[in-house]
Design brief:
The protein has helices at about 15-25, 60-80, 85, 100-105, 150-165, 180-185, 200-210, 240-245, 245-250, 270-280, and strands at about 5-10, 30-35, 40, 45, 50-55, 90-95, 110-115, 120, 135-140, 170-175, 190-195, 215-220, 230-235, 255-265, 280-290, 290-300. By secondary structure, the chain is an alpha/beta fold. It has 2 domains: about 5-105, 2-Layer Sandwich (Alpha-Beta Plaits), CATH 3.30.70; about 110-300, Rossmann fold (3-Layer(aba) Sandwich). The strands form 4 sheets. It has a 7-stranded mixed beta sheet, sandwiched between helices. The protein has a 4-stranded antiparallel beta sheet with strand order 2-5-1-6. The chain has a 3-stranded mixed beta sheet with strand order 7-8-9, covered by helices on one side. A hairpin with a 4-residue loop joins strand 7 (about 110-115) and strand 8 (about 120). The N and C termini lie far apart (about 60 Å).
């Protein structure tokens, strides 16, 4: 069996999801973990070095990787992230003897209890329902962006649990793996719609919905092109993007409808609050987990 390659990038662990997405989108990447990281319920334990490890099936082009990482890092700096928030993104590549790494990285994942009712279960783990009203979502962590372990995703899921009512119409903008749309459907939402501007994630989202036995509409789209209004909207996106598209998000909210805005580092929430005020939305609640903020707002 062919050997595989480890791409190890020095990052701030807080932006691991962002760098993971870059790896999946640009490299022949078949799995990502933080070095020596273990997920246990809501706790993320990682090395102090903040190393993200990506598994590559083919011999990588080091110059191409350097170019992609530099371009994306510079883009994030232009959008308001600091050097400290990003980390250095220095990287190394090592060839490893194939020891079935697909099983090795799976050992780093476990069942995640997002709340008393919401549980994320990796598809290879057998799990028995613990309580009658428990919402179980089955996913393949590490194979798609948005696995339910990251603080921003968990903040959104807790908000869905609190605010989404039976037969609500729900939109998930920037759906990624589809986890938030699936969560809303499992909490009794009627029509649920998820869209993303990355066509590579749409099939993954559809597969995840099928795996969880729920009916969700997923398509390649952006908020500005959506023509209907929703009772509840999820937008788990970077703070600067949220600010840029706040008007488009407001336009798809029903009067009295609510939105959860997540993907916001605590120190960047001011940018989002300014956009909320500019578009005359009413802040209902602000929640926090680790270094991240979620804002729930209403279209008055």
């Amino acid at each position: 069996m062919d050997n595989y390659f480890e791409l190890i990038i020095d990052i701030n662990p807080a932006i691991s999801d962002i760098v993971s997405d870059i790896c999946f989108s640009n490299f022949n990447c078949e799995g990502v973990i933080l070095a020596e990281e273990t997920y246990r319920d809501l706790e993320m334990v990682s090395t102090t070095e903040g190393e993200l490890k990506a598994f590559l099936a083919a011999n990588p082009d080091k110059a191409a990787i350097a170019r992609v990482l530099t371009e994306n890092r510079n883009l994030l700096l232009e959008r308001g992230f600091s050097e400290e928030e990003l980390g250095s993104w220095a990287f190394t590549i090592a060839e490893k003897e194939n020891q079935d790494w697909s099983k090795k990285w799976k050992e780093k994942w476990d069942v995640t209890h997002v709340s008393n009712r919401i549980t994320i279960v990796p598809s290879w783990i057998e799990y028995k329902q613990q309580r009658a009203d428990e919402i179980i979502i089955t996913l393949d962590p590490g194979c798609a962006f948005g696995t339910g372990t990251h603080s921003t995703t968990q903040l959104c899921m807790r908000t869905i649990e609190k605010y989404v009512k039976e037969d609500y119409t729900v939109a998930d903008i920037g759906t990624g793996s589809g986890i938030l749309a699936i969560c809303a459907k499992k909490f009794g939402a009627g029509y649920v719609y998820g869209c993303d501007n990355d066509e590579t994630v749409i099939d993954v989202a559809k597969e995840n919905a099928l795996k969880n036995g729920v009916d969700v509409v997923f398509e390649l789209n952006t908020a500005d092109k959506i023509k209907r209004e929703f009772d509840f909207v999820c937008a788990n996106i970077l703070h600067n993007v949220l600010a840029e598209i706040m008007g488009d998000l407001k336009a798809i909210m029903k009067p009295g409808g609510k939105i959860v805005l997540s993907g916001i580092l605590d120190e960047k929430k001011g940018v989002v609050f300014e956009a909320i005020e500019k578009h005359s939305l009413k802040v209902v609640e602000e929640t926090h987990l680790n270094q991240w903020t979620a804002i729930i707002a209403e279209r008055v």
